[in-house]
């Protein structure tokens, strides 16, 4: 962070439009508030209720294979992709939470504009005193962001708190900021999610991991899904976070997927 003046100047610059915002035409597509839809081919009948095998394909899959080895250990590399088995959730990395506990340029819950949302979240937690704090904050964010659309593009937390608008990235950012503000280590994850609709669909997606009961657990204020695959942790939360995000996402996002029973 380069100081309050530069941060606030930056916030003023992006307040009208997200840093990675999509076009109105794309935002109006009849899809959930996720990122890209990824072409998905089915091999036979697949029930998303149970374990599945997912093959992620792209022309250059070396970086993708390396990223998945970090979370899944040994993976099956093919000529044009990587095959993994999805059963229980696996965090992208198992490192300790020390680096994910403070405000940052991206998770700027120390900004004055964040305070009203933080106060509402505190009142919500008091009403839900018998529930685990991370789960209650997830439900709060799902309700707080009322304008669920794809018009924004990885807004920082104070902008999300002010506008109450966005897709999965804004849900993930706001939730991570509120978790940290309430003493729970949290980080933003980018990856894939499989959704059961009229047929199984796959999307690029973002969600939050929180350090709960001695490990990283997924919390998602934008979607409920059994199968998700994290590709990377947003570790650069500074002023240049957007450039790193775009490059990493494009380097790891598969161009198509093949889904088979697990």
From TrEMBL:
- What residue stretches are annotated with the Transglutaminase-like domain? 160-223
- Keywords tagged on the record: Signal
> Where does the signal sequence lie?
1-27
For this UniProt entry, which segments traverse the membrane? none
| Cited Pfam families | Transglut_core
Protein name per Swiss-Prot or TrEMBL: Lasso peptide biosynthesis protein
